[in-house]
Amino acid sequence: MISDLEISIEDIDWFAIDSIGEIAWLTSGAYGSLPSSVRKSRNDLNTLLNFFEEYLDITTEGQIDSKAFDNVILISDTPEIRASVFFWNLQIASKGLYSYDSHDAVPVSEEYFRVSFPVQPITIKILPKKIKNILNNTILSNIIFRESRTIQKADFVNR
Predict the structure, then answer these.
(1) Domain count, the chain
(2) How far is the C-alpha of 67 from the C-alpha of 39, rounded, in Å?
(3) Other beta carbons less than 10 A from residue 2's beta carbon
C-alpha cells in the first residue's frame, strides 16, 4: 500500500489505460493524486515500471505536446533546456505510451497534463498477460489519451 505521506513526498510513476486500450505513463511529482487501484500495490507498480523501462522497445516517434511547456518552470528558456526537460517523456512516447505529469508551475494535486504522445500508440492487446492483468485495474473509462491534454482526479477517483 502506498501511503498519503509517500504520495506527498515521492515522484511516483504509475500507469493507466484509456477507453480504447491505449496506455499512459503518469508521474505524480509529489503533487498528483493516485487512484486507489495504484495505491494498493507497490509490487504491481514496480512490475509495470520494470516492464516498460526494460522490456518494451522503442517502436515509434515521440512528440512533445505543444502546451507542455505552459505547465513547468524552466531555469531558463533556451533550446538546450527545452530539449533536456522532457527528454525522458520523449523516450516514453517512443515506446508507444502517452506521458502525463503533475503541474510544476502551479502545483495542482487534482490534475495531470500531457507532456508527450506517440505517433503510433501501442494498446494493451499486445502486452503479456501479467502486464495486462495489472493494467486492467486502472482503466480511465471516460478518457481517450489522444484527445485529452489533461486528466483530472475525478477521471480516476474510485479506480
Answers:
(1) 1
(2) 29
(3) 18
Tell me the one-letter amino acid at 101.
D
| Domain, as residue range, for 44 | 4-155
Q: What is the pTM of this model?
A: 0.89
What does pLDDT average to over the chain?
87
Whether the CB-CB separation of 15 and 34 falls below 8 Å is answered with no
Q: What is the residue whose three cell numbers read 494535486?
A: 109
Strands 23-27 and 13-18: antiparallel
